[in-house]
């Protein structure tokens, strides 16, 4: 999981959680929510995306509601990673918690829709296979890499402490 490669679907600034995961589907199953991912900004998103594609956006990706359905919808729709200038903090954390890699890169304006990029999650290097350029993203920390490698926070905790411990802790809340 250290290097991810995929085709780019490019979007702009201030893509909020209502655009990512339209609220009219929140009472539906996660599968239905994923079928409507990004519908608020691109009705063709789920028709265009292929498993492992990389969503690239401008500044402030994911502001709005703290609901986890936004990153879950993107992951279930096939997004392999998201690269943006910066993320709303709660979206960033929710994405890591569900095992979706998110990287901050100030050079996203140089990446175009349809480019193929390869991301080294540990070093933060992004290689544009289409143009030959490289960009520097903020590398992910070792604890974040461990969570992503496990598939998200719950699988990470289950691996580290055992399923019974996690089930016990979850029942308390």
Automatic annotation (TrEMBL):
Its catalytic activity? (2R,3S)-3-isopropylmalate = (2S)-2-isopropylmalate
Query: Which SUPFAM superfamilies does UniProt cross-reference here?
Result: LeuD/IlvD-like (SSF52016)
> Keyword Membrane: yes or no?
no
For this UniProt record, the keywords arranged alphabetically read as follows: Amino-acid biosynthesis, Branched-chain amino acid biosynthesis, Leucine biosynthesis, Lyase
Q: Where is the Aconitase A/isopropylmalate dehydratase small subunit swivel domain?
A: 35-104
Entry EC no(s): 4.2.1.33
Classify the source by domain of life. Bacteria
Q: Name one GO molecular function term.
A: 3-isopropylmalate dehydratase activity
Pfam families documented for this protein: Aconitase_C
Asked if Lyase is a keyword of the record, the answer is yes
Any Gene Ontology biological process:
L-leucine biosynthetic process
Pathway, per UniProt? Amino-acid biosynthesis; L-leucine biosynthesis; L-leucine from 3-methyl-2-oxobutanoate: step 2/4
* Purpose of the protein: Catalyzes the isomerization between 2-isopropylmalate and 3-isopropylmalate, via the formation of 2-isopropylmaleate.
Question: What interactions and quaternary structure are annotated?
Answer: Heterodimer of LeuC and LeuD.
Which family, according to UniProt?
Answer: Belongs to the LeuD family. LeuD type 2 subfamily.
**Database matches in PANTHER family:** 3-ISOPROPYLMALATE DEHYDRATASE SMALL SUBUNIT 1, 3-ISOPROPYLMALATE DEHYDRATASE SMALL SUBUNIT 2-RELATED-RELATED
Put simply, this protein is called 3-isopropylmalate dehydratase small subunit
**Organism this protein belongs to:** Thermosinus carboxydivorans Nor1
Question: Its encoding gene is what?
Answer: leuD
